[in-house]
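Lay summary. Proteins are chains of building blocks that fold into shapes, and those shapes determine what they do. In this project we predict the shape from the chain. Here is one chain we studied, written as its sequence of building blocks.
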Amino acid sequence: MKKMIAAAMLMAMAVTTHAQDNDDRDAVHMPTTTERNFAMLSGYVNIRDYAYLPNKAFVKFELNNVAQYEEIKNGLDTIVAALLHDIAFYKDSLKSDGGNVWIDYAIDEKLGVKKLRFKKYPPDGDIFVNKKGDVAKLKIEQDTVRILVRHYPLVPALPDNARRREKNYQRLEHYQVYQVTFCVNSYEDVARITADKQSLWHAIDTLVATKKEGTVNRPYKFPSSSRYNPYATSTVKDKYLASFADVRFKRYPGLVTTDDGRAWNALKRADEFTMNANFGIGLMRNVLAPYAELGFELSRSNGRMFNNKYQRFRYRVYGSCYFAFEHNAADNSYKTLPNWFVNADLGDNNDLFAGVGYMVKGNGGYFTGTTVKAFMNVRLLKKGLTLSPELIFTNDFKQVFPGLTLKVF
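And here is the predicted shape, written in a compact code that computers can read:
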């Protein structure tokens, strides 16, 4: 019975952190009640791409999957025509005196409704230009038109092999959502943009052609962002400066979280396999002993926001040793008594780790018989200092006592 209770405690400590990471409800940041009607939830965005178009306009695409680009090519012009028709009653109110407007248009095929929202912003002062005596009032800020579509897809969301593998997408095969946001000089320009199919379709085809296989088949696990600007003229050769420069095309290994292209280069999330070591001091029963560990770590990128930060989940296997010393009074010499454990832990690099260890060799009588420990790694500093409270089961699980280890690096 004691062995069963101890094993249950070890398993509970080991899986707690991993269960929190897999709860996708926490990864979806809920907007306000009003915004929820007009904005796509962040947890459903697997693709966020940007395309720059003529006259300084650009479009932001936020999708569940790559296949929705085909939906956009086939139906966006019709949606825009319906939008301009539906806002005709409010057209006089949208006339601005140098300010800008934000129009939200939400279409829900499941409910059979359309929703509209208008937000108007005054100009930051009256701005004029004087050219050879001719004075004209300027509008500096662009208008924004955001279209949210909850729809029944015309094409499969994922390839056949991916649909069988991705259970999360089975429920989305008949009901999906995507969002297209236009930033234009005037909201009426959206009709011109969608009518110019050559420019818009070329941008979409470019974005689709550059998606990796993982994003096509498993978009939730491999989210992606790209930026396409055929009008860019940057020729920066320095790799560091080029990451900030305005280039014709750039793909990012994850979702960008800001519309400011200068910050996008900071997104770099890739799996890593490393060997690392830690040193410190540990408490063995009533003795403070030097401590060292060496092992291998697999750091996996989630690619999702959780508690306002990106997660890098870590799996680690390593050997650790507590070094005790025995004094021989006869010749005034010391003998090293290593106590070796094999350990495995898992957790998020930003928060807690949980793990278990098994003693493979003991010396000095500190541990006897079968010895197992469960522990939590609490990061005291972002880098460099970790505190590990432990619960040690020894003497074939007949004895239990606490331990504590302080690790550096």
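What the prediction tells us: The radius of gyration is 29 Å.
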